Amino acid sequence: MNSTRNLPQMLLGQARDILLISLLALGAVCCLLLALGISPADIASTLATGAVGSWLKFNHVLTVWVPLLLCCCGLLFTFRAGLWNIGIEGQVILGAIGTTLLLRADSLGLPPSLLIGLALCAGFISGGLWGGFAGLLKNRGGVNEIFGGLGLNFVAQGFILWLILGPWKREGIASMSGTDLFARELWMYTPPGWRVAPASIVIAICAFLVTWYILSRTRFGLRVKAVGANPAAAPLYSIRPDRTGLAAMILGGGIAGIAGGLQVTCVYHRLLPPISSGYGYLALLVVMLANYKAGPVPIICLLFAALAAGSIQLPITLQLDSSLSGVIQGACVVAALLVYGWRKSRKGGA
Amino acid sequence: MLEIIEITKHFGPVQALKGVTLTARPGSIHGIVGENGAGKSTLMKIVTGYQSRTDGTIRLDGQDMAMASPREAAESGIGMLYQEPLDFPQLSVLDNFIAGADAFEPDVQKAVLASLQVGFGFHLDPRQKMQELTVGERQQLELLRLIRNGARILILDEPTTGISTRQKSQLFSALKKLREDGATILLVSHKIDEIEQLCDEVTVLRAGLTVAWQQQPFDRRKLLSAMFDTVPQQNDTAPKVATSVPGKSVLVFDEVHSSVGRSGMKGITITIGAGEIVGLAGVDGSGQSVFLKAAYGLLAPEQGNVTTLGRIPGPEYGSTKNEKVFLPSDRLSEALFPGLSIREHHLLAGETPQFLARNSGISQTQQAIATASIRGSVNTQVEDLSGGNQQRLLLSLIPPQTQLILMENPTRGLDVQSAAWTWRYLRERLHPEGAIVFASPELEEILSQATRVLAFYNGKILLDKKTSETSQEEISLAITGQLNRP
Amino acid sequence: MDINLTALVAAIAVMSAPVVLAALGETITEKAGVVNLSLDGTILLAAMVSFVVAFETRSPVLGALAGAGTGAIVAAIVAAIGVQLGQSQVAVGFALTFLCRDLAYFLGSGHSRVEGPQFEPLPVPLLSELPLLGKAFFSHSILVYLSFIAIPLCAYLMYRTRWGLIIRSVGENPEAAWARGINPIMVRMAATIGGGAMVGLAGATYSLSVKPGWGHPQGCEGIGWIALALVIFGSWNPTRVVVGAYLFGLLQLMGIYFQDAFTTIPPQIFQVAPFPLMIFTLVIIHFSHGKKGVLARWVRMFSGKPPKAMGRPYRRN
């Protein structure tokens, strides 16, 4: 068993896993569709045209891809540290709130582009603080990060509702449809014919590259990985597992906060209750499907985004519910867990 | 009559049992002795079906038994008291007494427990939670439960570790009573006194093999020599480094008490000076590993002071880094990061800049792999290394400026060559103003490598001598509690 | 503000019925050392299946059974991957939460907002005639009665039967259970599937009784997470978990009542309240450990620890 894993063997193993997972997941979904008397081919073509049928449609894919990729980056940090950051939804929401807070502060008299930049920083900070809060609850309060995070998600949901219906309510009447739109100059620049701000794509790609760099090319990244692999051994290498985990939570929450901030400045131009659109939870599925590795994340994000965007066409062309995309995504992840688990148990038994 | 014939057991590539044979007769107590790692516990767990065996036969009253699960063993009247109490700490005493029985009759069982207690002179409150009981009381309950189940063959694995003298005498009288009733009792112990007191016959295991068998009256000398293997090994003995810098103390323990572990530490006072190689002898859980952890600063003692390199130790973060290292016995689960490569371990242990390059650490890792002759490459993940190579890796991570090296079982699971290499390497690494402190279950190793020996028994140091002034016999008496502190 | 106490109690009993069932089911599962995190999706899927089956067969009873079966099947997947293969139970549960939710919306879209059968209130003869109590407790549908019966039944199962002891012992220390002749894997599978069936029944209670019908949203979204929190809040003790469930029902109703009285407080605040309460409880319990004094002792008396082996996979060597 002390052979070095060589690259071709590894790639072969991965290709086999991917094939198995897609066969299992898509096979199950196809069986379901056939049983319902729906042609899988129709679905596939509808999804494809829905996602890349036109420039505008592909734009829509990208508007999903940007926050999804950002959330995944945040999760890569926390998963690497061995933490299940289910509180990412709340971190996205808090990021959106932090950004909105600054964007509403027009009394500062700053130039718009600077204000947008500062607002995104505020999103990073507020998301990071929310993530750090869950981390502190774990370190100091003995609250498991899953339940602490989940609880903080609901708290964030309550907080955003209170803001929208209370202090930040629309001129005249409070409404669930969100706050007033920001002034035009506070919208991130979107060229004519585009639906997605090019700057947001750049930010997402940069965030991914930075995440990859920190995790694989810095001492901090290595320490995070070490703590995730074996917190008990960390003190022997002068690493504090609790602080390293907390740092990963803050950083991860911060990146998720940027996703929330971009939702506010680029997509909706206001704060509204479902601002996170469930991208945090979807990102958890993406990272699980990637088996917690960074490499495949952008591609899986793109596929998931295409599914989500393409499925909007399902009710229009085939009179089917758009939630089919979620079924496919979920089936992929469950199949992946099955395949990885099967591999692990075989390796352990050998 | 229980016959155990040619039992073997493999754990992956490691062979824990290489063919053990013994016979236990009804109405007798059969002792099983041997040093740590001889395979005693594994053998017993196989007999009760808790673990599966690779090969061999278990015969009960002339009938071959599969023993595929503890249920089967229980049905054929075999019950075991495990070394680490296998019970349910958060459940009540009564629940623990009932769990595993075929019927749920709390009131009946309460009465049964009460009447059994009277017979054995135990006093357990059925409503108490298990975690509030002492180890000895937990054991008493377990014993009563086995008797309630009608066990005719009782296996006890190191039952007297961590229990009080009173509980011990209670246990012994219970065992004698059971013997009179015709039960077959297998007693695993390393304490020769107890074996002499109780057993009718004794089998010695060493390195997975049956090496000796005796009936009362026992020849103590022969037993000890069979247990500890006095056959002189290829003595790659060091020129004993006698470069002690007088007056310079590396590690000071002053009346240190701790309740961590099976026996904790009970008033340890010791000073270890520069240039010393100190071997900590003792049976597992006698206080050596608590001692090492306290010396490194992984746990703080409840009473007394520890001074390491002139400071109160704590896990070293920041400036004092790399003055001391601790290499625990379970390398993969306590000292290494599964999933990380050899190179990543070197980067974590060394003076690494904040930002890494593509080739950071590669040359120094390659150099370490060569000097420590690790069978693996820069990117090999540590869980794919064999135990010996994991140890070589850990040793290669020790920074050159390290003054104090603390180790648990430095050569556990290593072949002769790797063990010899380990000690050569360690001696080279001994800092002129530093020391090496290691715990080892093998007295051979301590006698041949250490300059000084501390023998631990039940959380106390019973013997503190230069290795040149003591003998294997004296140490083995000390670690089995037969030597009173001078 | 006019609050009729009898009506209030009756409303709490109804609103809390599915929460009680789901939280009790999860309690059983977690007592055996398994976390089934898929509750939120399972409830929704079971609600959909129950409604569709009841609609097609015109039989609410068959619908409820189908709901329980759905819950059991989802739990079986959790058990297969999380217990048999030893994968992270959290990961499987989480993925299934979303798979089930979307599956429910997709498969149920044909039956959205249609009139269907439901369990009619079934007043208990004589008892329902009692003043005050009759209206509050004995004039409900059969699924609500089931939630009442489930409480003592669950407590009885857990603390007064051999099976309960086996479940608790496996959640506490699977190795010790194995040493006593219990097969931890089988017990965990059974507890997960059984608990899952109760969660499925909770879904049926929504779509066939509490919030009859199906739609997107159905109205029971988020309840699964609440049930998971309640198990912790009730420190894995069935009776205390149920107290939490009724407290949650009260909070929900207060949200409705207070909407008129305090228009500045959005009703959603009351719906998220259980979570901060749960976290607060956990922190208090954490800090009471090892502390002396009356308060700490009092907290410890009313709190329990999670099953010791919860979430830890069992493997025989």
TrEMBL record, chain A:
Highest taxon listed in the record's lineage: Bacteria
Main subcellular localisation: membrane
Keywords annotated in UniProt: Cell membrane, Membrane, Transmembrane, Transmembrane helix
InterPro entries: ABC_transp_permease
Compartment(s) of residence: Cell membrane
One of the record's GO cellular component terms: plasma membrane
Stored Pfam families: BPD_transp_2
Protein name: Nucleoside ABC transporter membrane protein
Biological source species: Desulfopila aestuarii DSM 18488
Automatic annotation (TrEMBL), chain B:
Transmembrane segments: none
Superkingdom of origin organism: Bacteria
Keyword entries, A-Z: ATP-binding, Nucleotide-binding, Sugar transport, Transport
Residue stretches making up the ABC transporter domain: 2-232, 250-483
GO molecular function, one term: ATP hydrolysis activity
Cross-referenced PROSITE patterns: ABC_TRANSPORTER_2
Pfam families per record: ABC_tran
Listed Gene3D superfamilies: P-loop containing nucleotide triphosphate hydrolases (3.40.50.300)
InterPro entries per UniProt: AAA+_ATPase (IPR003593), ABC_carbohydrate_import_ATPase (IPR050107), ABC_transporter-like_ATP-bd (IPR003439), P-loop_NTPase (IPR027417)
SUPFAM superfamilies in UniProt: P-loop containing nucleoside triphosphate hydrolases (SSF52540)
Protein name stated in the entry: Simple sugar transport system ATP-binding protein
TrEMBL record, chain C:
Domain of life of the organism encoding this protein: Bacteria
Annotated Gene Ontology cellular component terms: plasma membrane
Spans traversing the lipid bilayer: 6-25, 37-55, 61-83, 137-159, 189-208, 214-234, 241-259, 265-287
Keyword Membrane among record annotations: yes
Subcellular location(s) per record: Cell membrane
Molecular function, one GO term: transmembrane transporter activity
Keyword check for GTP-binding: no
Keywords for the protein's UniProt record, in alphabetical order: Cell membrane, Membrane, Transmembrane, Transmembrane helix
Lipid bilayer topology: Multi-pass membrane protein
Alphabetical list of PANTHER family matching this protein: ABC TRANSPORTER PERMEASE PROTEIN, SUGAR ABC TRANSPORTER INTEGRAL MEMBRANE PROTEIN-RELATED
Protein name: Nucleoside ABC transporter membrane protein
Species of the source: Desulfopila aestuarii DSM 18488
